[in-house]
Amino acid sequence: MPGTGLTHCPTHRSGCTAVQSGIGFALAESYLSAGFNVVGNGRSQERLQDAAAKLGNPDSFLAVAGDIAVAGTSQRLFSEAIGRFGKAEILVNNAGVFIAKPTTSYTTDDFDKLIDTNLRGFFYPTQAAATHMIGNGGGHIVNVTAVVGIQPNANVPATLSALVKGGINRSRRHRQRPDFEDKSIPNKKGSALAEPSIFIPWRRDGDSNPG
Q1: C-beta pairs of 198-207 under 8 Å, 24+ apart in sequence
Q2: Is the C-alpha dihedral spanning 27, 148, 168, 204 positive or negative?
Q3: 61 bridge partner residues
């Protein structure tokens, strides 16, 4: 899901990820093949159903449709994941929108899309995961970020995208510093993965990562 959580069951482990296609679908496929349960999220119920059919493991896969930019979606994701699989141990934030434009060409709609998916879609699932993990002795939160947030590219003007993804990168470092560590989550692991741009088919028209 654009916020995903891996859970422990009495017999095997479970996981959740955005699964409609792309990164999320590949994650779901890998976790299922490794014996995990998966909770998948996406905006479109129809596309989620198509993904579920392709994954072909109905006993271990739960699809939860909803906009990850809405706080209630994250609450529902974790509620349904816990109700089905017991508890959530891993959250993978892999939803994202990339809009490459000169600074003077960004619109208010571009700004809202980036904030909704890349920032709200990161914070709300993380908050829901942390709240759950505090009561369960720990957990893992993985954020899929972007190369542009680490290393600018003169051929890809993307000030707003870099601003948001760079902030997520810094938040990871903030949480990992011993003097700033968030001690509310025992045994937590925090990491950020920057996507190699040559492998990710993101368009420049503001299309979201379908995973």
Answers
A1: 200/22, 200/23, 201/22, 202/98, 203/98, 204/98, 204/99, 204/100, 204/101, 205/99, 206/97, 206/98, 206/99, 206/110, 206/113, 207/97, 207/98
A2: negative
A3: 38
User: Under a CB-based contact definition with an 8 Å cutoff, are residues 110 and 34 in contact?
Assistant: no
Cα-only R_g, the chain: 17
Residue listed under structure tokens 């990850």: 68
Q: How confident is the model at residue 204 (pLDDT cuts 50, 70, 90)?
A: very low
Task: Supply the angle between the helices 71-85 and 121-134 in degrees, to the nearest 10.
Answer: 40
SS3 63: strand
User: What whole-number percentage of the chain has pLDDT above 70?
Assistant: 68
How many angstroms separate the CA atoms of 27 and 42, rounded? 14
By three-state DSSP, how is residue 4 classified? coil
Question: Greater confidence, 208 or 146?
Answer: 146
Question: Which domains are present in the chain?
Answer: 7-209 (3.40.50.720)
Phi, psi of 29 (to 5 degrees): -60, -45
| Runs of H (alpha helix) within the chain | 22-33, 45-55, 71-85, 108-114, 121-134, 159-176
Residue 30 pLDDT more than 90? no
